[in-house]
Amino acid sequence: MRLEDKVAIVTGAARGIGRAIALRFGQEGARVAVVDVREEEGNETVQLIKAAGGQAVLVPTNVSDKAQVQAMVDAVLEKWGSIDILVNDAGICPFEDFLEMSEALWDQVLDVNLKGYFLCSQAVAKVMVEHGVKGRIIAVSSISSEFGGGSQAHYCASKAGINLLVKSMAISLGPHGITCNAVLPGTVETDINREALADPAVRDYWSQRAPLGRLGRPEDIAGPVLFFAGDDSDWCTGSMLVVDGGTSVNLQ
């Protein structure tokens, strides 16, 4: 197992991509801290990991709140004594036309999607440095970090910020042996976009944009994240790995 005895924190792990990553990590031997504000669904993730023979604990956390993030890190340390891997996946995308977008909504999305990644990364990185852990920090970004969206200005801006945050952390944390990388998914069907994708025309459009001919599944992202979490990526840092079925290279 590629992550045997490693301690991993996965934010946004109650459902979607975060849940798929947490489950995959559990299958690979990691002890997984399931971090999310959705306690009921987070507990479901924990039970799925345990049912597959893994170890997991739920740590309810609002990642945009510094005090809650620190309490989460402290709880993981108390439980398992160290932290080897952090996956930042918690994110929101309430679709809203740019001209109608309120300052409050903008702040909410940037607080969760960007500040949350910063707060979690900083708190965990300090622990890794203190404990001498050559750790892994992985961000789930998006191809929306490179392409605009008329009803996703807040989301696209946050994801673009994540990419540069990861690159900057790679420079700062590299001397400590900590790698920082990002995975950029394309259109993956999750609760964020399920309503929009219920429209057959929208679904067909995004499926056909991908040369591989289908939408992404959360499990499609878990494998690339696992790569960055394991030893095979030991000389990768500051990398942006696009996982989108070829959507971003299809200009038709």
What does this protein structure show overall?
By secondary structure, this protein is an alpha/beta fold. The chain has a single domain (7-242), classed as NAD(P)-binding Rossmann-like Domain (Rossmann fold, 3-Layer(aba) Sandwich), CATH 3.40.50. The chain contains eight helices and seven strands, in the order βαβαβαβαβαβαααβ. The protein has a seven-stranded parallel sheet, sandwiched between helices. Strand 4 (85-88), helix 4 and strand 5 form a beta-alpha-beta unit. Helix 1 (16-27) crosses helix 8 and helix 4 (103-131) packs parallel to helix 5. The longest helix is centred in the middle third of the chain and has 29 residues, at 103-131. The protein starts with 6 loop residues before the first strand and ends in a 9-residue tail after the last strand. The model has no long low-confidence stretch (mean pLDDT 95).
